[in-house]
Design a protein that fits this description.
Elements: H1 2-18, H2 21-37, H3 40-46, E1 47-54, E2 60-61, H4 63-71, E3 75-90, E4 93-106, E5 109-124, E6 127-137
Parallel strand pairs: 1-6
Antiparallel strand pairs: 1-2, 3-4, 4-5, 5-6
Helix pairs in contact: 2-3
């Protein structure tokens, strides 16, 4: 009986940890690293099928476009650093707000952006997935 209770408690604890702020922060950092490294396998896991990825200039991308544009030369991320990260969680949904410094090459032009970024993440299939992202220039 103690064995069953112990296993049950470990399962509950692991589920709660997976949905914790720390796990979400790790997923958000993993997303930034996947963009820089052009890691399409990680992006396929981290991005929700219905993703809308909004840029500060009004440009919107789908999951497919985010991944495709990393490989067709449209955009290359070189640095993404975030500060003032704030996470708010409510059940299976969470927001991550931050200030981001981003260095990219877009259609052959090197650009630097300092942005307010809002990401919406959902807990699905035992992992965090980016559902929406919008940025605004500071």
């Amino acid at each position: 009986m103690r064995y069953i209770v112990t296993i049950s408690l470990l399962f509950i604890y692991s589920t709660l940890f997976a949905q914790s702020e720390k796990a979400l922060s790790i997923a958000a950092d993993g997303f930034n690293n996947a963009l820089i490294e052009r890691d399409s396998n990680a992006l396929k896991t981290l991005l929700h099928e219905k993703l809308v990825y909004g840029h500060s200039n009004g440009w919107k991308q789908t999951k497919k476009e985010v991944i495709d544009d990393l490989f067709n030369g449209k955009i290359a991320y070189h640095k993404i650093s975030q500060s003032e990260e704030s996470i708010v969680m409510d059940g299976n949904t969470a927001t991550v707000r931050s200030i981001a410094d981003i260095d990219v090459t877009m259609e052959g032009k090197d650009l630097h952006f300092k942005l307010h970024v809002l990401q919406v993440w959902i807990w699905k299939n035992k992992k965090w997935q980016l559902f929406g992202r919008q940025s605004a220039k500071i």
